[in-house]
Design brief:
Length: about 375
């Protein structure tokens, strides 16, 4: 990238098959200068002009788009790292020791970690070199009490790292910061954050801190998602292994890439497409199940908070799918949730009725700004 007198920070946000790179100017307020997104990386039906075969190629494409928008010079790169394990509870500079830890975590998160490691390696090879930092999705949930982290398994498994970590932490952190700015009293209360995108989770937040969340050991648990099953009876996987003879890799692929909305509908993992398929009963079943599972988790996490004051919908589906928000909230009247159909249809910032005891909000999450904020602080 071309060098100028305007130093900047690159926030790198890698999904399972997508990459988003955002450039922030390194000054107070972190002005956003450019954003580039590459989708459907490595997928057969990707559009050649907007996609790439590998994440290395995707980075080259994204940085090329950034260069065409601005000439700011990055002095540091912040990566969204989905899994930080039990040891990494704060953003930190990427070192040889940290990379070794992340490689040990790769078998737990095969959906994201290989891509992140590939991107870190790609930046290490670029010239001139820049400092790189890791911002962990799991860090926000290190405040969960012990009881919320434990699985009812033999105690020896705890020392092997088998516990509930929680994910989507950078998104939750963004929502908490925004709530604190617009309504501090809401942050002090009991909040449920429903991050609904291709990945999906609900997090219970009390006084700005995570107390429980739907995702557990890996980003595959909890809610039904685009291609991920969410929570399963463990005997389902054992039964499939015994009756089909499938390998662990094949079963992993099934529950992370072939299930969820795609698996139930047999059509697509894209909620937008399913909502238009009024001709398909399978598409309708997938949508109904998605709402039902999310509603169950909202109810369960309300119990962990002892009630709820605010519900926030965020993520691509949470922000842009009124029918899904309405479907999830239907039946939550017992908790004090009353939404306005008109406000919901227009994606208003507050979609609840004025008389609703629970305030229901629609908010845009900004993980990239959170990453850049952490990097700026670590740079001093």
């Amino acid at each position: 990238m071309s060098s100028t007198t305007a130093p900047s920070i690159l926030a790198v946000n890698a999904g399972s098959s997508s990459l988003k790179v955002t450039l922030f100017e390194l000054q107070e307020g972190l002005p956003r200068r450019a954003t580039a997104t590459v989708d459907r990386i490595g997928l057969e039906n990707a559009t050649p002009s907007d996609s790439a075969a590998t994440f290395d190629d995707a980075l080259r494409v994204a940085l090329g788009k950034i260069e065409r928008q601005t000439s700011c010079h990055p002095v540091a790169v912040g990566h969204r790292v989905v899994h930080g394990g039990a040891e990494h509870s704060q953003p930190e500079r990427i070192t040889t020791a940290l990379l070794a830890d992340l490689r040990r975590l790769e078998p737990i998160d095969r959906t994201h970690m290989p891509q992140t490691l590939a991107l870190i390696d790609a930046f290490e090879r670029r010239q001139p070199p820049v400092e790189q930092f890791a911002c962990f999705d799991t860090a926000f949930h290190r405040t969960m009490p012990l009881v919320a982290q434990q699985y009812p398994l033999p105690r020896r498994t705890w020392s092997d790292g088998i516990r509930r970590y929680g994910f989507h932490g950078l998104s939750c952190e963004s929502i908490v910061e925004q709530l604190r700015a617009i309504q501090p009293s809401a942050t002090d209360g009991r909040v449920l954050i429903a991050h609904l995108g291709n990945g999906a989770s609900v997090t219970a937040v009390h006084r700005g801190h995570s107390v429980d969340t739907s995702m557990g050991f890996s980003p595959s648990g909890g809610l039904m998602m685009g291609t991920r099953s969410g929570d399963l009876d463990p005997s389902v996987v054992i039964h499939l292994a015994e009756t089909t003879g499938d390998s662990p890799d094949a079963l992993e692929r099934m529950v992370t890439q072939e299930s969820g909305l795609l698996g139930v509908s047999g059509i697509s993992s894209d909620m937008r497409e399913l909502l238009t398929r009024t001709d398909s009963s399978e598409a309708g079943e997938a949508v109904d199940l998605y709402c039902y599972v999310a509603r169950k988790h909202l109810g369960a996490l309300t119990a962990t908070l002892g009630g709820v004051d605010t519900i926030v919908f965020t993520g691509g589906i949470g922000e842009h799918a009124p029918r899904i928000r309405a479907g999830i909230c239907a039946g939550l009247e017992c908790l004090g949730v009353e939404i306005s159909l008109e406000r919901n249809a227009s994606d208003a910032p507050i979609i609840s009725q004025p008389r609703s005891r629970v305030v229901v909000r629609v908010m845009r999450t900004d993980e990239d700004h959170v990453i850049a904020t952490h990097v700026r602080r670590l740079l001093g």
